[in-house]
Design goal:
By secondary structure, the chain is an all-alpha fold. It is 80% helix and 2% strand. It is built from eleven helices and two strands; from the N terminus they run H-E-H-H-H-E-H-H-H-H-H-H-H. The N and C termini lie far apart (73 Å).
Length: 266
């Protein structure tokens, strides 16, 4: 998931900067950037569902966790996720190649998905797949969360692991809710354009930060700051850094004080 988010941020930031610098770019390059951004964006909620299932197995079926969640099956699951996330959107490219003329791919357009894949049927197909994917992911997260919640209440003596898993899935649900913003953001952006017609660039920038950047910040929080060992070393780093900065501020004052001191006569 970290690699997926890093790739998504790299592509979207590159596309965002290019749209600010050149405004219009070649359709072929735009098509490549759009497809990679769409693949990685769709991957995020499906990855969340996969990790929620892994937490469910670890808490509810702990004796079979090592047998079920092997490295080979993990790679197989990653491949299946990529296939099901790429397949619905790669068909947009094939339909566009079949319906658009060759000269269209040599033109320059403002790089938006609706400017590249212009067939109305593709927009309806995209909405249908979005509903199917996110309904399945939401049901998976709700099921695993409540199953882990019941297990955490049942085993009070060993509830620390279950409690941690429950909190992780709850944060996954929050991240999923923020990822869902990408599917209502076009409508919200259109409404804001009508209300504030002179702030189009500002609205797009704020929309990009809230919808695409902010949800990706939750991953290092979930898997970094919540780790006890990492949190302990992070606190030690902050304390040592704070002491070093304090020493750097106090040291010149001490040097000035010692420089202005008059030596006593014996």
């Amino acid at each position: 998931m970290v690699i997926n988010d890093a790739l998504q941020l790299t592509v979207t930031v590159t596309l965002f900067v290019l749209s600010y610098i050149f405004y219009k770019i070649n359709v072929s390059f735009c098509c490549f950037f759009i497809l990679v951004a769409v693949f990685t964006t769709r991957n995020t909620p499906v990855n969340l569902a996969g990790m929620a299932i892994e937490r469910y197995i670890a808490v509810c079926v702990p004796l079979r966790h090592a047998q079920i969640c092997t490295v080979r099956r993990t790679y197989l699951l990653i491949g299946i996720i990529w296939f099901f996330c790429v397949a619905p959107d790669i068909t947009d490219l094939f339909v566009t190649l079949a319906t658009e003329s060759l000269g269209f791919f040599h033109e320059s357009v403002f790089c938006l998905r609706q400017n590249i894949f212009r067939d109305p049927v593709l927009a309806q197909k995209r909405q249908a797949f979005d509903i199917i994917y996110f309904s399945c992911v939401c049901l998976t997260l709700i099921f695993t969360y409540f199953r882990i919640l019941f297990v955490a209440r049942a085993i009070s003596s060993e509830g620390t692991s279950a409690q941690t898993a429950r909190n992780t899935i709850l944060l996954h649900g929050l991240q999923l809710a923020m990822c869902l913003l990408s599917y209502v953001s076009p409508s919200v952006e259109l409404i804001l354009h009508l209300i504030f017609p002179g702030y189009i660039l500002e609205i797009r920038f704020a929309n990009y930060l809230i919808v695409y950047i902010l949800p990706r910040f939750l991953s290092p929080i979930i898997y970094g700051v919540r780790d006890r060992k990492f949190r302990r070393y992070f606190k030690m780093y902050l304390l040592s850094r704070g002491c070093a900065e304090k020493f750097q501020r106090v040291a010149p004052q001490r040097k000035d004080l010692m420089r202005h001191q008059v030596p006593r006569k014996t």
